[in-house]
Amino acid sequence: MSQIAAETRQGHIEVRDFALSYETIDGAVEAVTDTQIHVEAGEFVSIVGPSGCGKSTLLNAVAGFLKPTSGVVTVDGSVVTGPSAERGMVFQQYSLFPWKTVRENVEFGLKMRGMPKFERARAARTLLGLAGLEAFENHYPERLSGGMKQRVGIVRALATGPKVLLLDEPFGALDAQTRIIMQQILTNMWQRLKISVLFVTHDIDEAIFLSDRVYCMTARPGSIKAEIQIPLERPRQQSMMMSSEFLALRRGLMSLIREESLKAMGGEITDLGMQGLGIELQGQSIPDIL
Amino acid sequence: MTSPEQAAAPAAPAAATLPSRPEFSARAARWFRLNQDRLRGLLIGTASLILFLIAWHLLTTYRVVFFVKFTNVPAPLAVYASFTKAIHDPKFLMHILLSCRRIFIGFSLAALVGVPLGLIMGRFKLVHEIVFPVAEVLRPIPAIAWVPMAIMLWPTNEQSIVFITFLGSFFPILVNTLHGMTLVDPVLVRAAKCLGAREASIFREVYFPASLPHIFTGLTVGMGVAWVSLIAAEMISGQFGIGYFTWEAYSLVQYADIALGMIAIGVLGLGSSLVIRAAGQLVMPWRSR
Ligand SMILES: Nc1ncnc2c1ncn2[C@@H]1O[C@H](COP(=O)(O)OP(=O)(O)OP(=O)(O)O)[C@@H](O)[C@H]1O
Ligand SMILES: [Mg+2]
Fold it and tell me: Model's pTM, two decimal places?
């Protein structure tokens, strides 16, 4: 734990002039364009936006899984060229290793780093204790509930003491109650470890409740539509979600997203319509059918 | 510790992790309940085997002729008699031992070549592109069809039989291992990369264990085909082995020995697949329920 605490106040993420297109058979699909975001050291930042706007794309680029078509991603000044243990990631599908016990999952990053068996077991136990999972250290993930799985996922990502934690809709598959508990656990861990967090979600309440700042993206091709400061004081309580301040923020974000969601769906609908028309005209003309 | 984390630690499943040594009878009752289905299966299975033996007994003692002729088929008791004689006969035991040895060598070689080759083919495209076409052409050839070729290829009969056993199990093992590799969840690979894993570690810690269930499917199928191939090879070109024993019994008009040989083959095949299943449960503890 002490070595994790020693690496504090790092993890400044900078995404500049970012664009990313996917190569497909129908040509390039522009997922994200002209995007600038940053996360200060120790800051909690969320990204919200309509489905398919490129949130995951952006996050995966920060993780180092995707190369930007243009622009650059840096963490503490050095350019991201591939995945690394300094950027921990939590996935919606949990993605725990089924063949490893809870503790072995948490130990994985430390093992990769060459930490001796005994030491990493001790470190893993400490971390599992923080997440209330010490009783489950020898369980295989298959037997855990969704909430427990994701706690293991978070602990596993934190075990190597990353500067940055990236989460892609981590609580999307959980029920409302579990989700709230998970949010509090994440907040606790974040405050304790003082790392930077970039959090993707489609849940506006979640974004406001957790974040210092929220980026709202436009429909595809995604770019930053708005950047909203969340001045709610910390520690935040569940009751704050009823406060007028919270509700005002919520209303603001809601209308931003609704606009974009409509745009996204409208776009798709006209797209489909056009395609249907195209096929009819190209394929069989009316005399053919007759 | 703050309250949400305590709230997050569920109290209920703790009983499952820390068995508090309940009373023996309560444990036994629970075991009984949990294994109800299995016990039922065991019971019905035993009954069905007994019925099979009775039917066999009746069909042979009354020498039923109904499309198939049971006139010359040995009765279960006759087979049992030749069994009690055979287990004291070192020659019979040698036949069995030799067959087992051929299986062991042929199958082990197939696993030692097939599994690594499948893993490497799944990981390195070039190896896949080179090996796959050859494998696809050779794969549909039944091992029995290799008998003449094997006799030409290998200096001794023993080697050619082992070779045929090897071939029989090799392709199922290779194909299933390769299949397992293609099904590895890419998100798990990503997760490993995010945790600092390099190529070798990803191979060892992700691709290999993720493929293990399919590897074991391949081993199970491979073991079955190994026996099929072995018996065929022994019948055609052998001088020893349980397949040869069965065929010899036919030539010598020892009808009870035919059935004995067949049953021995069945039991050996069953036993070897049980060994593989046990090994699978040992190697994949996360899959045992
Ligand atoms: N591998 C790919 N090839 C082609 N297009 C892709 C690929 N991955 C994503 N896309 C497209 O890029 C766009 C952005 O995808 P992305 O997954 O980043 O969206 P998202 O905001 O995470 O969506 P969601 O909220 O549904 O998770 C989508 O329109 C998607 O169809
Ligand atoms: Mg997504």
Answer: 0.84
